[in-house]
Amino acid sequence: MTNVTPEAFLDQKQKMIDIRHDLHRNPELGFEEHRTARKVAFELKSYGLEVHEGIGGTGVVGILRKGRGNQAIALRADMDALPIHETSSHQYCSTTSGKMHACGHDGHTAMLLGAAQFLSEKKSFDGTVVFIFQPNEENGLGAAAMVKDNLLEKFPVDEIYGLHNLPGAPLGAFSTRSGTICSSESLFEIRITARGGHSAMPQKGVDAILVGAEIVQAFQSIVARKMDPGCGAVVSITEFTTNGRRNVLPGKAILKGDVRARTPDDREQIKSHMQRLLNGITQGHDVAADFSFNTEFIETINSAEPTQIAIQAAKKISDNVNGDREPMSFSEDFALFSQEMPGCFMLMGNGTEGAHGKPLHASDYDFNDDALTIGAAFWAQLVANRLPE
């Protein structure tokens, strides 16, 4: 079996760095990745791949075939940036005010391009590799758009893999798990309609702030007292606005927040608990409330066999591989792909120092250029393992 090391990518490293820095200087938000998509397509074509553009809007797909093997696997990278003003001081800072690659998608794209170039030259596999460059991961819309555009019918594969950097973890450390790897995210909104009143005569009306405050407190009891203590769910109120004024008790209040869960059952349980608590509180105060609960990201669930394949590939690259890590509380649009077919989502350390250790979505976060050869080598090793000659 072919062994691929990060050192095999040293000749390509500067090119991958140049690509990443260019993408970092020119960030584009979800479904606006026109320049990014053109660059990705240009690179893939220069490697001799069959290229399809405009999948799901701004998505790009590259196809690389070798030999007579009929097995096909997909490797996915995300391309979109975030609406964040960058506060870094490096030479390749964003040139677009209010937009920034604060999650490392520039690095993910560069790594997968590096792997595509390497595999197109070495061709040390037998089968088909489908390189998916996905738009709009951050809003959880890109995977659905590509699937709706018949991605899976146009380019059928047996399984799919994703790779995401993890700041705060040592450079080159890999971690994943079979089962749930990332949580779902559900956004909720509550609109309270009360009577309001004069602040000096609260008994004449109904204070929407008081009702909303009871709801906030009650919702914090859901995970603490109504769910398994180890379930890993989170319920957060993130906005609380009213139409109150000086000496005016508000008659309207809006509460917004999000729920993270590791299983669909937990997600539905939380929704039911929220509805029951809301009904009890609003009925007790004789007020009306509208409740909406929309799941933006489903849980990302890794299949057993692809996960073991990814772990074995990582062990060829690194001595620091955890195949049974704790699930992550953040959400990932890769979830939709892994719902449609067997898949594995892998995490790779971005480093612990400076900008490389800053949290994802921080305004001074930066992808680690030294991770480029490691990630590209992981992709190439995965292909060698899964599609052996």
The tally of beta strands, per DSSP, is 16
Terminal Cα span: 8 Å
Strand-residue fraction? 25-35%
Mean of all residue-level pLDDT scores: 96
Which H/E pattern describes the elements? HHEEEHEHHEEEEEHEEEHEEHEHEH
Layout of helices and strands, plus pairs?
Layout: H1 10-25, H2 34-46, E1 50-55, E2 59-66, E3 72-78, H3 105-122, E4 127-134, H4 142-148, H5 151-154, E5 159-166, E6 174-175, E7 179-182, E8 184-193, E9 197-198, H6 208-226, E10 234-242, E11 248-249, E12 252-261, H7 264-285, E13 288-297, E14 300-302, H8 304-317, E15 321-322, H9 334-340, E16 343-349, H10 371-386
Helix pairs in contact: 1-3, 3-10, 6-7, 8-10
Short structural description:
With 389 residues, the chain is of the alpha/beta class. Helix content is 35%, strand content 25%.
General description of the model:
Helix content is 35%, strand content 25%. The strands form four sheets. The chain has an eight-stranded mixed beta sheet with strand order 1-2-4-3-5-16-6-15, with helices on both faces. It has helices at 10-25, 34-46, 105-122, 142-148, 151-154, 208-226, 264-285, 304-317, 334-340, 371-386; strands spanning 50-55, 59-66, 72-78, 127-134, 159-166, 174-175, 179-182, 184-193, 197-198, 234-242, 248-249, 252-261, 288-297, 300-302, 321-322, 343-349. With 389 residues, the chain is of the alpha/beta class. It contains ten helices and 16 strands.
